[in-house]
Amino acid sequence: MACYMFDALTIRYDRIVRKEDVDKVNPPKFDKSNDMAELTHLNEASVVHNLATRYMADMIYTYSGLFLVAVNPYCSLPIYNREYISMYKNKSRDVASPHIYAITDQAFRNMLEMHENQSILVTGESGAGKTENTKKVIQYLAAVTTPTHATGELGRIEQQILQANPILEAFGNSQTVRNNNSSRFGKFIKIGFSRSGQISGAYINWYLLEKSRVVTQSPLERNYHIFYQLLCGAPASLREKFLLDGKVGDYAYLKNGQRTIPGVSDADEFNNLTSAFTIMGFSEQEQTDLLRVIAIILHIGNLEVGAERSSWQAKLLQYVQVEKLCHAMGVPVDAFTKALLRPRVKAGRDWVDQSRTQAQVQFSLHALAKTLYERGFAYLVNRINDVLERDSASTMFIGVLDIAGFEIFETNSFEQLCINYTNEKLQQFFNHHMFVLEQDEYARENIDWQFIDFGHDLQPTIDLIEKSNPIGIFSCLDEDCVMPRATDKSFTEKLHSLWDKKSDKYKPSLLKLGFRLKHYAAEVDYSTEGWLEKNTDPLNENITQLLSLSDQPHIAQLFADDAEGTLTARKKKGLFRTVAQRHKEQLTSLMTQLNSTHPHFVRCILPNHEKRPRKMDNVLVLDQLRCNGVLEGIRIARTGFPNRLSFAEFRQRYEILVTHGGGARGTPLARATATGYVDGQRACSLILDALNLDKSAYRVGITKVFFRAGVLAELEERREKLVRTVITLIQSRARGYLQRRYANKRLHRAEAVQVIARNIKASQTDNPWWKLYVKMQPLLIAQRETVQSMARDGEYRKVVVQLADAETEARKVSERARKLEAEMKKVQETLESERALAIDQQEILRRTQTREADLEEQLAVTLEDLDMLEAQCEELLDAKRKADKEVEMWRGELENGARIMGRLEGEKSTMDKRIEALEADLRTKEDKEGKIHGEMEQL
Ligand SMILES: Nc1ncnc2c1ncn2[C@@H]1O[C@H](COP(=O)(O)OP(=O)(O)OP(=O)(O)O)[C@@H](O)[C@H]1O
Question: What distance in Å separates the CA atoms of residue 302 and residue 421, rounded to the nearest whole number?
Fold first, then answer.
């Protein structure tokens, strides 16, 4: 890390580096600096060094320009108690050391002062401390806004918001290698406030629940906490009701992973969950319903599926287990078995029973378990929202986003693409907020500013993922999900053909099936195996329809959209979304909300992988700082002017600092105003001159004044001091005036009493009527007061009744208004998402139509070719036929010739034989002749 240069000749070192490659060290005065943007030498080594030295001194929070960096302490620190809350309440950021409370307080004050919604974005790796910091934000807001916090008791809504956490954690958290209480979903918690700054409600949006964990976990991890809590902590009567008679190790969906977490009692956690449910106002029936879903999933996991011996068809091996499951689900056994093993499916226009293989049935069961869990979770969050979002008086909100940071694993799949895409968008949001807005504003205000391109250009990668034209990864996947014969392979090849060599952010991967994407943080290889299935989440419709008729109302409600032929089913068909579409929509809605807020950024850092306190792995930390944009954030914050005020605001707030003094001739501003009109720009310049600030510490724009970091804090301090003096002066004058008036009044009263007494004494002492009057008067007053008081009581009672009626009416009206508002919001959201989907679909339709037109053209050409080829074929066939005939004829001739040849051969051989016989005869005759000759000669 940061190191000094040594003379390579005099000191032997293992590694020699060039001078220019060495980062400079900051002077000791900058040790453990609160804000890293203030470091004189701003380099990676100094930043990590600063974080590390602070961390070792238990200072886990550090500012870094716009960011608050939070390093996980992995131990409990006494920095979240009541004193700390008071220490940060109503204080500006620079007054106390960096803390999540300071950021929260800043957001709270911004909201109240500027009437602008706020957001706090907490991101980081798994285990870095996002959820812990999110909880601290909510705790702080609950503590500072609750009217009775002085007694240590929170209001009901504050308690309920805090108690939503244990419920969400039981159902949405799990033990992983990185984190014993890892949130397996992202959330955006919006805390609503009334105009007076009281918490008036809350609303939770959730993202990307890791549902695959329900059916499989790695051996070192666990399923969601609730499974273990139900089995270890629920009363025996409840487990009996769900027919759960086994231990953790007896359930297929639990037995292959870890079973306990060191130092955590699942039974105690179940009790905490139950009390959280009670505080949230969940009835016993609702709690049973939620837990029933968990029991059903455990039963599904234990269903054993085999294959018929004589065929490949699947069969269920244990009837008892099926019975248990169907009892828990509230559906008939036969109907379920049939729906699972031989569902009715559409084949062309007909419906047929289709036998399923063992693997297919196993797949349907896993899909059912995952869907049940996800729908149960969605229902749970909706119910929590029903409880928390109860007041239409919320006029502003502070939203806290707790979402997983960038992920690069050994194998990265569809889930990683979704989370990395989310982070790409969030990083772009930050870049946009910090770089683009800043620089746009400098340009608009005509500020002397040298443009530096700090931001990564993230748009090409985002387009590559989300755009529908040219077709991006998500759209391409959606398109292939509706293509009849598409496979993961054809999808990957299509992606390559669309993007390879056309975008420098995309490359085919070295993996068998996959691609490589260049993100702002790193290049990531994605394996595309199973993407078509992951994107469509296919379910056995026979089973979901059956579940919509369950005699357990909660289960039937979870599957109401799947009911056969119902209006909702038809509606659902219109609303069907792929996973990619759903995520894109959710993210668009999140970004719209974030864009309407003033954001605050918290970056959580994982110090080491061993969960050890006071140990920092510098390389690991540096990697995270680079990935989450902290390093670039520091640079721009230092070089720019992060604080700004409009002229009017600036004058209103700081003119006071210069209107005092100036002697008999007044201040320069007073003198200028006295001689005529002074515009805002000139007035501000005059004030700034009078303030004696360093010229480089500020810039005066066209409508605003800009300050470098830290300058406003100094002005605020000066102003506070002055205001305190002025107020003390006013108070002392007012008190003096009031006391003097009071003293005079008492003096006059005393004099008057004396005068009256003297006069009465003189004239009335002996008058009998006066005596009677004096005796009667108290009785008359008492009588009159009794009558008046009775009348008042009557009035009061009437008013109380009227008030109660009016309050009830007002409550009803506001409840109705809230419901209508919620409905309207939902309808608007649906409309928005429908609109977005329609645009996507139109795009796909347009592409399909273009392709259809191309294909039709190709078809016409092909048909022409076909006609030509058919004609050619016909001619060739004719020629072939003719040739065949000729062949036939020649074959006849040939056979004839062969026959003649055979005959001639025969004749030839006969002749040969005859010639041979004749030759033999001739030879015999010649012999004879020779003999005769010989005999004759002898004779
Ligand atoms: N400020 C803190 N004080 C004490 N302990 C902390 C703090 N922040 C984090 N931890 C410890 O680190 C663990 C992990 O933190 P947390 O659950 O907040 O991480 P995360 O970033 O939300 O992880 P995931 O993404 O897996 O949910 C906590 O259970 C706690 O033990």
Answer: 36
Spell out the residues 6+ positions from residue 680 whose beta carbon is closer than 8 angstroms to its own: 647, 648, 651, 703
For ligand 1, mutation pick of 58, 71, 179 (most atoms within 8 Å of CB): 179
Atom of ligand 1 nearest to the CA of 129: 18
Atom 16 (ligand 1): residue with closest C-alpha? 129
- CB 179 less than 6 A from any atom of ligand 1: yes
Structure tokens at 872: 């050619």
How do 186-193 and 199-207 pair as beta strands?
antiparallel
Contact 61, 99 (CB under 8 A): yes
pLDDT tens, residue by residue, 690-736? 888 888 889 999 999 988 866 776 787 788 888 888 899 999 999 99
Of 422, 475, 431, nearest to 586 (Cα)?
Answer: 422
Retrieve residue 299's tokens.
């039963």
Rounded CA separation 372/171 (Å): 13
β-pair partners for 64:
67
For residue 119, the SS3 value is strand
Nearest Cα to Cα of residue 63 among 640, 618, 602? 602
Structure tokens at 557: 């409600």
57 CB-near residues (< 8 Å, 6+ apart):
32
User: pTM score > 0.90 for this model?
Assistant: no
CB-CB contact of 713 with 94 (8 Å)? yes
Residues annotated as part of the active site: 126-127, 131, 179, 182-183, 405, 407
Beta strands in 639-756 (DSSP E): 643-646, 698-700, 704-707
**In angstroms, what is the span from residue 378 Cα to ligand 1's centroid?**
24
> How many C-beta neighbours within 10 Å does residue 814 have?
15
| Complete DSSP assignment for 51-85 | HHHHHHTT--EEEETTEEEEE--SS--S-SSHHHH
- The Å distance, Cα 676 to ligand 1 centre, comes to 62
Distance 67 CA to ligand 1 centre (A): 19
In this prediction the ipTM stands at: 0.99
For the residues of 262-286, what is the DSSP string, one character each?
Answer: TT--HHHHHHHHHHHHHHHT--HHH
Q: Is 130 close to ligand 1, i.e. is its CB under 6 Å away? A: yes
C-alpha 176 – ligand 1 centre gap (Å): 12
What does the alpha-carbon distance between residue 66 and residue 443 come to, in Å, rounded to a whole number? 21
Contact 167, 280 (CB under 8 A): yes
The number of C-alpha atoms within 13 Å of 596 and in the hemisphere containing its C-beta is: 12
Report all structural domains of the chain as residue ranges with CATH numbers, in order of start.
422-587 (1.20.58.530), 643-753 (3.30.70.1590), 766-938 (no CATH)
What average pLDDT does the segment 418-423 reach? 93
Q: Please name the residues in contact with 635: beta carbons below 8 A apart, sequence gap of 6 or more.
A: 42, 452, 454
- How does DSSP classify residue 313? B
Q: Backbone phi, then psi, for 358, in 5-degree steps?
A: -55, -45
| 266-284 residue pLDDT tens | 999 999 999 999 999 999 9
Digit-coded pLDDT (tens) for 338-356 = 999 999 987 777 888 989 9
Which of 174, 181, 185, 264 has the most ligand 1 atoms within 8 A of CB, as the residue to mutate?
A: 181
Q: Provide CB contacts within 8 A for 284, sequence distance 6+.
A: none
pLDDT tens digits, residue range 371-415?
Answer: 999 999 999 999 999 999 865 556 899 999 999 888 888 899 999
